[in-house]
Amino acid sequence: MPQITVHNIESPSRSDRVFWLLEELESTYDVVTYLRMPTLMGAAPPELFKHSLFGKGPALSIDGESFGESGYVLHRILTHPEIMASAPSHIEREQSNWSVHWAHAAEAAGMTWLQEEDMVAVAGKAWVEGRIGEATPEELRGMERFSSWYSWEIDRPQSQNFIDKGKTEQWLAEHEGCNFTGTEKFGIGDFMMLAGIHSLCAGSRSVMGYKVGPHIKAWWQRVSTRPQFLRALERIKTEENLTLRQQKQKQWG
Ligand SMILES: N[C@@H](CCC(=O)N[C@@H](CS)C(=O)NCC(=O)O)C(=O)O
């Protein structure tokens, strides 16, 4: 079997996609965790550039070859002949068109807007709290008005369009009981959709007032109760705690 190292960026992050897949495949893998820097958006430390073209996580090393982009990482695992030779039968082998569609949609039509809303909110709040620079009360009122308008009028309708009006909910309703493969198997579309749906149903976005329909919730329920997924969450927690402890030890001796 190939030697696998997951370069995990501190959660919450898209790393959950990779951990879940590796746990479904019952793979053995090492983990290196990169704690986020104390910047406004929690930037990745520069060491990640050694493993990912854009210096972001998650990244993967497989037999010494490193690369980033979670979609590409999943693709490389799911097309690795040795890994797939022993993959359980509930993991899709030939990617269906639906799987490829949802893998792209997850990042392009989903995360783009969900993430932008976070950024606008965080930046607006930081200005108001005086963490970015000096601003007059009038300027601050303007910024607050702009960021709130931008979030609600530009980002939220786009995100909500992806979640329900834009058919994720409707597609799952039309494919009752199916995963994002269009069958009962799990494929790249499911692993990619995890990050957004996880945050909407149980993570930071679950308290942000998004309307999430019953079919998305049912998919989440199916996934989040799987022992493989629970193992993935446990591994993330264990690895991140270990890195935090090591960092503290380095700092304080
Ligand atoms: N399209 C990329 C996005 C990568 C990305 O933005 N990762 C975030 C964590 S989820 C990150 O590294 N953030 C820190 C930074 O932007 O410096 C992927 O799917 O891997």
Structure, described:
By secondary structure, the protein is of the alpha+beta class. It has 2 domains: 4-92 and 229-252, Glutaredoxin (3-Layer(aba) Sandwich), CATH 3.40.30.10; 97-226, Glutathione S-transferase Yfyf (Class Pi), Chain A, domain 2 (Up-down Bundle). It contains 9 helices and 4 strands, in the order E-H-E-E-E-H-H-H-H-H-H-H-H. It has helices at 15-24, 70-78, 81-85, 97-128, 137-165, 168-174, 188-201, 214-224, 227-252; strands spanning 4-9, 30-34, 59-62, 65-68. Strands 2-1-3-4 form a 4-stranded mixed sheet. Strand 3 and strand 4 (65-68) form a beta hairpin. Helix 7 crosses helix 8 (214-224). It is globular and about 65 Å long. The mean pLDDT is 95. The protein binds glutathione. Glutathione is lined by residues 9, 13-14, 43-44, 56-57, 68-71, 107.
